[in-house]
Design goal:
It comes from Streptantibioticus parmotrematis. Its EC number is 5.3.1.23. InterPro entries: IF-2B-related, IF-M1Pi, IF_2B-like_C, Initiation_fac_2B_a/b/d, M1Pi_N, NagB/RpiA_transferase-like. Belongs to the EIF-2B alpha/beta/delta subunits family. MtnA subfamily. GO terms for molecular function: S-methyl-5-thioribose-1-phosphate isomerase activity. The protein has eleven helices and 14 strands. By secondary structure, it is of the alpha/beta class. The strands form three sheets. The chain has a seven-stranded mixed sheet, with helices on both faces. A four-stranded mixed sheet has the order 11-8-9-12, covered by helices on one side. Strands 1-2-3 form a three-stranded antiparallel sheet, covered by helices on one side. Strand 8 and strand 9 form a beta hairpin. Helix 2 packs parallel to helix 4. The radius of gyration is 20 Å and the shape is globular. The site of 5-S-methyl-1-O-phosphono-5-thio-D-ribulose has 18 residues, from helix 2 and strand 9. 5-S-methyl-1-O-phosphono-5-thio-D-ribulose binds next to helix 2 and strand 9.
Length: 371
């Protein structure tokens, strides 16, 4: 199958349109942070419309996290950190806010880590004698620092990832398969795995981005295809279960995915459907690469079995996403884990902003974290 035989994409109307609105931003009126809000691009409404969700309180932010209006590991970390600042600015109980935010979704370690970072800074400021407005400013500046660090991490991951791709698939013209959504919508910068593909595209080295639709919530179809179209990348969408025949046809040079949590031994939790891709990649001798910032690596989680995998409501499987249109008989039970875990021996390399771990094991992961 060459590029001519691939279904043409109806993405021309998206070419050259302005960059996506920021996935998340802090806004406060001139009078001060008491009226601050966290503005999110509501990802449940994409690609049909770009609608912003204005969170004036932590409850609204927790709901946005639970419904995946804001999602993706690095962005959840930012949402968590800004959420603590929002609670402090608005005069909510910051302890309670931190607990609610951390518990909103269990798998992406970035969320609890982002919350903890802003919360610890806030508490430390109070302990050092700061008043609440000053401690709030400290929490906000911690969230902003995390945001800036995440943007810088995106750039470094793209550089490391591109160099790795060139080693794994010499000569360019890469045909890359990706799963879920890992671009600017999940990051302070250009993203993780998608950021590498985008860098390859900008260097004229990406022949095709194969985009898994990512059942059941279609982050690939709704979000990654949207980002790829806007960046005028050569992309093709496939149903998740078409990946096997794509590998068998020799159409995939490398798999690039993100991560929600990387355990100390390199086991990687990512969107459900990632593990089968790793098995397929191994069977077909194709490199399988995880791209994630070090904020996603959790040395306190020893192995894959210790990662809590979020279980989501069955209706996400028994109904079409976004519409309450049933695709299964009423009362059908559904198995709906949001993530699966890929063991380290199936992962060719882990790319972070600090470098590349390959082979993937406890020692190489520890080295990445140490920087
Ligand atoms: O349930 P989601 O949409 O939050 O899941 C997101 C993913 O699984 C991403 O692949 C992961 O967070 C990496 S994003 C850089």
């Amino acid at each position: 199958m060459d590029d001519q035989s691939v279904t043409p994409q109806a993405n021309d109307q998206l070419r050259g349109v302005p960059a996506l609105s920021a996935a998340l931003r802090w806004e406060e009126p001139p009078e001060g942070p008491e009226g601050a809000v966290l503005v999110l691009l509501d990802q449940t409404r994409l690609p049909a419309e770009e609608v912003e969700l204005v969170c004036t309180d932590v409850q609204a932010l927790v709901a946005a996290i639970s419904t995946l209006a804001v999602r993706g590991a690095p962005l959840l970390g930012l949402a968590g950190a800004y959420g603590v600042a929002l609670a402090a600015a608005r005069g909510y109980d910051v302890d309670e806010a931190a607990a609610l935010l951390s518990g909103a979704r269990p798998t992406a370690v970035n969320l609890s880590r982002g919350v903890r970072r802003a919360y610890d800074a806030y508490r430390a400021a109070l302990s050092a004698g700061a008043d609440v407005p000053a401690a709030t400013a400290v929490a906000l500046s911690e969230a902003r620092a995390l945001h800036a660090e995440d943007a810088r991490a995106s750039e470094s991951m793209a550089a490391h990832g591109l160099a790795l791709l060139e080693r794994l698939v010499p000569g360019g013209g890469y045909r890359v398969l990706t799963h879920c959504n890992t671009g600017a919508l999940v990051s302070g910068g250009r993203g993780t795995a998608f950021g590498v593909a985008l860098a390859a595209h900008r260097e004229g080295r990406l022949r095709r981005l194969w985009v898994d639709e990512t059942r059941p919530l279609l982050q690939g179809a709704r979000l990654t295809a949207y980002e790829a179209a806007r960046a005028a990348m050569p992309y093709t969408l496939l149903a998740d279960n078409a990946a096997g025949s794509l590998f068998a046809a020799g159409e995939v040079d490398a798999v690039l995915v993100g991560a929600d949590r990387i355990a100390a031994d390199g086991s990687t939790a990512n969107k459900v459907g990632t593990y089968p891709l790793a098995v397929l990649a191994r069977h077909h001798g194709v490199p399988f690469v995880v791209v994630a910032p070090t904020t996603t690596v959790d040395p306190a989680t020893p192995d894959g079995a210790s990662i809590e995998v979020e279980q989501r409501p069955g209706h996400e499987v028994t109904e079409l996403p976004g519409a309450a249109v049933p695709v299964a008989p009423l009362g059908t039970q559904a198995y709906n884990p949001a993530f699966d875990v890929t063991p380290p021996d199936l992962i060719t390399a882990v790319v972070t902003e600090t470098g590349v771990a390959s082979p993937v094991d406890a020692a190489s992961i520890a080295e990445l974290v140490a920087g």
